[in-house]
Specification:
Blueprint: H1 4-17, E1 24-26, H2 33-39, E2 44-50, E3 53-58, E4 63-67, E5 73-78, E6 92-94, H3 99-104, E7 125-130, E8 134-139, E9 143-147, H4 149-157, H5 169-180, H6 187-190, H7 202-211, H8 225-245, H9 256-262, E10 288-292, E11 295-299
Antiparallel strand pairs: 1-7, 2-3, 3-4, 4-9, 5-6, 5-8, 7-8, 10-11
This protein binds a DNA duplex (13 and 13 nucleotides) through residues 1-3, 6, 52, 67-73, 94-99, 123-124, 139-143, 192, 194, 201-204, 248, 273, 294-296.
Length: 305
DNA sequence: GAATTATGCCCAT
DNA sequence: TGGGCCTAATTCC
């Protein structure tokens, strides 16, 4: 599920197993041959997520910028460090992939072509990052390019604040509140605007607004500043939880047993997202789905005013 | 088995 | 406004 939490997990996996190593960078698909050649053979010195974008910095200063879009995903093979102590190592992260391996247990990976390492690329692999022990394959990204340091700085500057990539969350929250409360655009659209706040996608958008009991159509300018700040604080909580948990869970009312169930049952995870026509879990009113700026918006007209 | 759908966002028209 | 990315789970016959 490539909202912000997913990209932070990908950056974490890259830091654990590929940062600090000299990498072979290639484009098995061929569409990124020139970009791959620019960083091939260099040491990867950093991997950072900002919002939904991933920035991989090489020793020359050049930066591989990746945006997964709707279909993109990274598949990891070889020696992998669990993302959380005692947890599973990553298999595939991004859009749903390799579901068979997920059923085996999240993180267990399907090994194509037997146990050979490195594995033969399967399908359209845009970029392969390979150390002696680990391979990361990128498929289906909407953006994948190599930038010089100045260009990379511009790309980062275009993004709003991200609670998981700032060292001053309070100041960043003020920036988000400024941007959210200065326009007449619906708050439901502003939360999806990556220059207002980075990393929120369609699920987090719907759930943040429900948790705040806020009507998605409220113009930004009409959102009280303390409500805007509370949205930032809640986003910081949900994002940190999503990064650790590996999926989006926004129902703070679930029992421990239900939280365990939610690992395999996505229908338990959210208040309104993907629940069109089902009764709101608080008011019983059927959850409404409508189009907002070409994306489906789920909300409860009784609770969110 | 085919059609639809999806967590995003860019670009051409 | 529509297509593109390039995939797989889900839903519909």
């Amino acid at each position: 599920m490539p909202e912000g939490h997913t990209v932070h997990r990908i950056a974490r996996q890259l830091r654990l197993d590929l940062v600090g190593r000299r990498l072979a960078v290639s484009s098995p698909q061929g569409r990124f041959a020139a970009g791959a050649a620019r960083v091939d053979g260099q040491v990867l010195v950093a991997a950072d997520a900002v919002g939904k974008q991933l920035f991989c910095t090489f020793e020359s200063g050049d930066v591989l910028r990746v945006h997964l879009g709707l279909y993109g995903a990274w598949d990891f093979f070889g020696s992998l460090t669990p993302l959380v102590p005692g947890g599973f190592a990553a298999g595939s992260m991004g859009a749903p992939r390799l579901r068979r391996s997920v059923r085996m247990g999240e993180g267990e990976r399907e090994t194509p072509a037997g146990d050979a390492f490195p594995p033969e690329p399967v399908g359209q692999v845009r970029v392969r990052l390979a150390s002696a022990e680990t391979v990361a394959d990128l498929r289906g990204p909407t953006a994948c390019e190599v930038l010089d340091p100045a260009e990379a700085a511009v790309a980062v500057a275009r993004l709003g604040p991200d609670p998981a990539s700032t060292d001053d969350p309070d100041a960043a929250g003020e920036v988000m509140a400024d941007r959210l409360t200065s326009r007449n655009v619906a708050v439901g659209q502003l939360l999806m605007d990556q220059s207002v706040v980075a990393g929120i996608g369609n699920i987090y958008r719907a759930e943040l607004l429900f948790r705040a009991r806020l009507d998605p159509h409220t113009p930004g300018r009409r959102v009280p500043r303390d409500v805007a700040r509370a949205l930032w604080d809640d986003w910081a909580v949900l994002l940190a939880d999503g990064i650790e948990r590996g999926f989006i869970l926004t129902r703070e009312d679930l029992s421990e047993a239900q939280r365990v169930e939610a690992v395999t049952d996505a229908t338990l995870r959210n208040w309104v997202y993907h629940r069109a026509g089902e009764p709101c879990l608080v008011s019983g009113t059927p959850v409404v789905v409508e189009e907002m700026a070409t994306r489906k918006l789920y909300w409860c007209p009784t609770c969110q005013v």
